[in-house]
Amino acid sequence: MHADDSNMDGATPSDSVEVGATVDAARRTLLIGAVATSAVVSIRPALAQTAGSVLNCQIPVPERGKGMYIDPTGKLVTPDTPGAFPPSPRDFTGEEVRKALQGSNLPGTTREQSQAYLNYIRKLQNGQSGFTCYASLQMPRR
Amino acid sequence: MSERAYAALPGHALKRVRMGGLEAIYHTPSGITHLLAEPVPELLDALDAVGTDTFVTAERLVAQIASRFDLVGDDPQERPEQVLGERLAELAALGLVRLRAEA
């Protein structure tokens, strides 16, 4: 239909009026810009950007200042609860948690204590300290 | 001469939301969001209208778009096929359209 390219220089409305007998009432002008003008901005997921810092980010178990113990299912309980573990004296790094999720114990913990802490970490939700760190462990490595 | 031809992705690969003059488009396979300005959403619309599995050249797509719009470029020296072809190549590089080189 547009075999003759010279007709396509610029925007000449007369070109397209020939195409159909009825011209759409909604027809409007489309600004196509120039060759070098990009019209796309890309936003990568925020969590993906943290992938580089996964090894060093911190996950407190549990959040500070609560005075709560952690039971084997990862729930926060009062310190007098039988079978519950005291809070971890230090935060765990993303790398330590990643290794623990693959089967080893968190540093300085027994098998049962490590499982209880991991169960707590698995229950972390958005807004809780350490959530973003834990969530970024779930992201596939690039 | 080999010519590049483009086709739309399957509908479920993209989630598109109109935001005033811009369009936010979420690319499900990569999880990346793109903000598109005119004329890119119109290009995607035109490819959709052609059909998901139909590959078309920039030239044919321009003919399709010109039947609905008056095309206005920044530089009269640049042909619409050239300008929109550049945008299509960009979309293909981002994975938002499929690309095929035609013999």
TrEMBL record, chain B:
<dbReference type="InterPro" id="IPR027599">
    <property type="entry name" value="PqqD-rel_X"/>
</dbReference>
<protein>
    <submittedName>
        <fullName>HPr-rel-A system PqqD family peptide chaperone</fullName>
    </submittedName>
</protein>
